[in-house]
Amino acid sequence: MPRPLIFDLFHTLVPGSDAERDRVVGEMALMVGVEPSALVAAYHATWRDRMTGWDVAETVRILAGRLGGTPTEDQVARAAAHRRELAVRLLDRVPETTLAALDALRAQGHPIGLISNATAETAEAWPVTRLARRIDVAVFSCDVRLAKPDPAIYRLTAGRLGVDPTDCVFVGDGADGELAGAAAVGMRVFRTAEHNDSDPAWTGRPLATLGELAALLR
Ligand SMILES: [Mg+2]
């Protein structure tokens, strides 16, 4: 059987859009009556809680409260909706070349998985995306309360694909130490620099596009 492939999501299958994320959080701050740069900083400082615990509205409520805000539930709901719209937009930004690369890999018979350190709104937006129908098993940190590089999230995903981690190939930009995490459970690792040069110390030439993968695996 062709080896199962497990992809990271942001900066691997879709652009990370970091500046737009900060802009949207700043707009959310105005909706809930707190200082925009303070809410942006609070979002960055609490990424682990957001990746593995809090839902969208809970995040807004907790962080606005910490900054001295007292938003109404209606204001929290509006800000949460703004964040959900961002997630839909970011997932829709998958390049056509990436969709074509995934289709080619599927045609070669590779089962395809995804492991994403992602917050709740991304997991909520996922099922109706063009990516979702090309991925056999998608695991989001917010759903399983584990985040890369914890070995458990790689093992769990391999298990859902019905294979051993050592059978899998992991492809990611390298944020959060995800490449070392994948290698530690025995996965073969490819780094991509298509969207961001996140882990330049990783040995070997990175993929310039995901289109290069099919030939490398053949
Ligand atoms: Mg990434």
From TrEMBL:
One of its GO terms (molecular function) is hydrolase activity. The keyword Hydrolase applies. Keywords: Hydrolase. It comes from the Bacteria. The keyword Methyltransferase does not apply. Coiled coil: none annotated. NCBIfam families: HAD-SF-IA-v1 (TIGR01549), HAD-SF-IA-v3 (TIGR01509). This is HAD family hydrolase. It comes from Micromonospora solifontis.
